[in-house]
Write a structure and sequence with these properties.
Layout: H1 2-32, H2 41-72, H3 83-115
Helix pairs in contact: 1-2, 2-3
Amino acid sequence: MLGDLIAGFAVLAGFLFALVIFVFQLRLNVVRDPRVQSKRNLPELIDQLFRNVLYAVVVSFVLTIVAIVAAATEPAPGVGVHPVWSGVVTVVTVHLLAVVWMCVSRTRTAYLELSK
C-alpha cells in the first residue's frame, strides 16, 4: 500500500516539475505579448503562480522522501506503518493538497484578469 503511495507522490512531483517549466516559459512569453501590456496584474499573478508551483514541487519531493523513510522503517512486512510516520505523511499530504489548491486559485485569478 505504501509503495503505491510513493509511486503516486513521485508521479505528482514529476508532473508539478513539468508545470514549473511550463509556467516559466509562459512568463517569458507574457512579457512579449502586446495583449498583456494593458493587464498590469497578470505578470505578477504568473510570478506568484510560479512561486507556488515551485513550492509545491519541494513539498511533493519532501512527501516522497518521508513516505520512503516511513516504508523503510516499517517494523515488519505486512504489519503496517508506525503511527508517527503515518501522521507525518498525512500532514504533509494535506499541506501539499492545500498548496496545489492555492495554485489552482492563482490560475483562476490570472484567467479572470486575462478575460477582462
